[in-house]
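Lab notes, practical 5.
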Amino acid sequence: MDVPAQTIGVEPSRRATPASRYRGVRSRRRHVRAACQLPRVRHQSGRELRGPAPQLTSAPGRRRPSIATHRFVVEIFRTARSQAIISSDGGNVRVTAGWLASLTVAAVIVAPAESIAVAATPTQASTAVVPLATGPQPGTFTGRGFDTCAAPSQTTMNAWRTSSPYGAVGIYISGASRSCSQPNLTASWVANQTSNGWRLIPIELGYQAPCGTRTPKMSADPTTARSQGVSAANSAANAAQALGIGTASTIYNDIEQYPSNASCRAAVLSFLSGWTEQLHVRGYLAGMYSSGSSGIKDVCEAYDNPSYARLDQIWIAWWNGVADTDAGSYCADAYYADQQRVHQYAGEVTETWGGVTMKIDRNYLDVRVTQTPPQQWTTTIDNSASGGFTASTAWGTSAYSGQRFGTDYRFTSPVSSSDVAWFRSTIPATGSYEISVWYPADPGYNNQTPYLVETTTGSRSVSVNQRVNGGRWVSIGVFTLAAGTGNKVGVSRWTSGTGLVVADAVRITRV
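Output from the prediction step:
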């Protein structure tokens, strides 16, 4: 997927200035979006009407049109083009007057004494224009897309937009494993492509499977891998925001093919859990790109596993040459079935459109924004957190188990008296919170470990078998917690069960 592109025989052309969308034209948004995806339309002169939106120019001695007027006319042009009701006369574009009268336009303000002419030839982009934040990417889209190692030039994007069958382009926005520099990838570039009708597929190419050959590798320890997933999500979200790629967009984590085995699978799934949960906290949807035989197979087999956070979308690398979203035997049709798939069906192919040649991977998308991820409040308290954990000297410290959260955990023997190890936190507001606990599992640990939760109606006790389900988050329920700082969750030694009692980490999430 991450192969440098080759651009050959680029024909000289003028760089078009894409027009910003005027968001006041609410009743015509659907037509405007469609205008960016419809086949080319010919008016009666025989010239094709597909490409950048027109620019506004002022008649001599007149004021330059306002931005609001500019955007208004651009929307009229795009909508008219989508309905094939444009005529041409000597290079001037005209829109049927009767159709204009039928428009319902909200809050369009036109300054007086403005003279507006729609020029058929686009003008040079102004470097003074500040790029606007884009909507969700790739958003709701069904159709063909391509990806290539480096974001193409504006000339290339213009040529392919007007002549190729593609409507989406994959861009590598972040990650230490990227092999190409990105001189073109800026906020202005992003704004230009989206205003021209392109859909963007943001990609993070960073940590790779611990059993694979590519670097940098994520940790083989699931706990550490999960933390790396959180870090990768923050890095990708920061990069997306810097480029103007807004929330509710899907960011795909590219994990290249790896020889899957049990330990490697656990690390990858834990990494993706951290990735997914943290992207949701940041307001983005979480996707993954991988080969059908490794990463996609693993996430689909874990689709109903509550120990791992479920991705929002998958991107299947399976070069079978068929432009659809089928994953064959790698993923059941019932999984990620609600417009949640991208299929890379061919790779490293050379294509020429509009006189410009590139080496690309071919993709077919059927995706949509299912919902804006919840802006959840969540906090994790480890036993080593300063000021967040207290326990008596009867609680020892160990790093024996590889299933631990962080560097170590606490343990002690059961007794017939209360000696609680407390996890302390600051709750932002009284409300419902899910409590999840993390511990290493071992046959020698307690099968009835009491967890205490301090709720608004008193202390609640939940018994957990610490001999099973270790090395992952285990939910013990949803409770009403009071706002403020204090001991919120504890582990008690007073139990009739046998084996050592362990206190490792607690996660509190508002629901």
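Observations recorded by the TA: The CA atoms of residues 18 and 196 lie 6 Å apart. DSSP finds eight helices and 26 strands in the chain.
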